[in-house]
Amino acid sequence: MMYDVVIIGAGVVGGLLARTLSEYDLKICILEKENDVAMGASKANSGIVHAGFDAKKGSLKAQLNVRGAELMPQIAKELGVKYKNNGSLVVGFNDEDIQTIQSLYKRGCANGVKRLRIVGKNELRELEPNISDNAICALHAPTGAIICPYELTIAAIGNAMDNGAELKLNFEVKDVTEIDDGWEISSDTETIRSHFVVNAAGQYSDIIAKIAGDTSFNVHPRRGEYMLLDKECGGLVSHTIFRTPTKMGKGILVSPTVDGNLLVGPTSEDITDKTDTSTTAEGFSKLFREDTVKNIPFNKTITSFCGLRSIGSTGDFILSSFKRGFINAGGIESPGLSASPAIAEYIIDMLGVHGLVLIKKNDYSPYRRPAHWFREASIAAKNATIAQNHSYGRVICRCETVTEGEIIEAIHTNPGARDLDGIKRRTRAQMGRCQGGFCMPYIANILARELGIDRKDITKSGGSSHIICGRTKEIS
After folding, report:
1. CATH superfamily, domain at 373-457
2. pLDDT at position 114, please?
3. CA trace torsion 50, 54, 58, 64 (10° rounding)
4. pLDDT tens column, 381-400
5. Residue 476 pLDDT more than 70?
6. Which end of the chain is more exposed for a tag (fewer CB within 10 A), N or C?
7. How much is the pTM?
């Protein structure tokens, strides 16, 4: 079989590209080396839809951030993804910060960001009563927002699959070879062909490019550690609170999440290991020192995690092509999530220049039922659902009030969950205070039953991350 477009990488960029392409009469395939989608930066970032004031005028980051932020509310609505336009504040503490904030204001206006303004300390405290007593001003960006990055990715890929796209998991690309009418892409066990290839492999986009013969750029990881606090802390701030940025990024932020928690992070550390997502005492100490917001209750932390940002060697998004039919989407660091809908548009334009014929389908649907529809239903609607399917009446995760019906639905809805973390990202089961301490065995049993496999084959996140290593009381 010959595909029209193969996308390497099932992150938010690859997902939104696949979703946008699925509007057309094309054979599309998404390749992902992990056991699930959204396994790279798309599952471990700040979840911020940036307004677009930070990137330099004329850069792809500036152009695509503003456009992507404009597109995001409608995309979130169509996909049933939680999105909140909470606004953002860049807080200043001294004269140097004031100069930086003034520069950001001018840059944001030049980039086309709407309703930007600088507020003084009195108005700042009206906007955020818990802001530091030492704060003297802030850049207020009302168009800033928050979203769940992995929910967006899962929903986009699911919608693409509902519209005919294919997804191949555990497909680690080992070879990309140019052939007469396109490209041949191989793993250790399978080879497929496609007229066009889009390399959206995140941290590994430079490696995929080199395999195909393009050595024009490099990507290195930048570690960012986070702490997630309990939902009772989510109201400490209403905006996303930044310090003034440095060359290492936008700094440590304090923000509510769309699910009601409080997020603090990320740290920023350039490394070479593309797999190092460990959390460290040093990273925690940096987060503990964060004082932009007063009295952050770190004793209410329920989990910590580390994400890797893909830092490209060009200083901008790398949207390039070294040969006809092969397109790179590399170095998609912040504001990559915000820009992702516009990056998809940009790549489709590039594919058109390369010769991809785009004919719209008559039966394309941009809509997807929210994964959280049951939780948001009225009591009467819930009772009606339970009357038809009793599994929605059995609560499995008490912390987040997730039912067996929702877990079963997550397993059988595109792209279906195949491991415990996949259930977590789709339903929030295991994301509460106990972090799966009580519900995990029940979820493992449901996975085994629905997938028709043995419980010992259930993993946390694919690969060798098995939960059960053997049975007790067995005699060997």
Report:
1. BFD-like [2Fe-2S]-binding domain (1.10.10.1100)
2. 95
3. -10
4. 999 999 999 999 999 999 99
5. no
6. C
7. 0.96
Domain boundaries, given as residue ranges, for the chain: 83-145+222-305, 373-457
My answer on whether omega of the bond before 266 falls inside 30° of 0, hence cis, is yes
Dig out the tokens for 180 from the structure. 């007469």
Amino acid in the structure at residue 216? S
- CA-closest candidate to residue 366, choices 92, 71, 100: 71
User: 197 - beta bridge partners?
Assistant: 6, 326
Pairwise CA distance, residues 318 & 328, whole Å:
7
CA 210 → CA 6, 44, 174, 308, distances in Å? 17, 26, 11, 21
Distance between CA atoms of 110 and 103, rounded to whole angstroms? 11
Minimal CA–CA distance to 446: which of 395, 414, 404, 402? 404
Token match 């997807």: residue? 368
Superfamily holding 83-145+222-305 = D-Amino Acid Oxidase, subunit A, domain 2 (3.30.9.10)
* C-alpha span between 261 and 228 (Å, rounded): 7
Active site residues: 50
Q: What is the mean pLDDT of residues 157-186?
A: 97
Reading the block at residue 253, the tokens are 């932020």
The answer to whether residue 216 scores a pLDDT higher than 60 is: yes
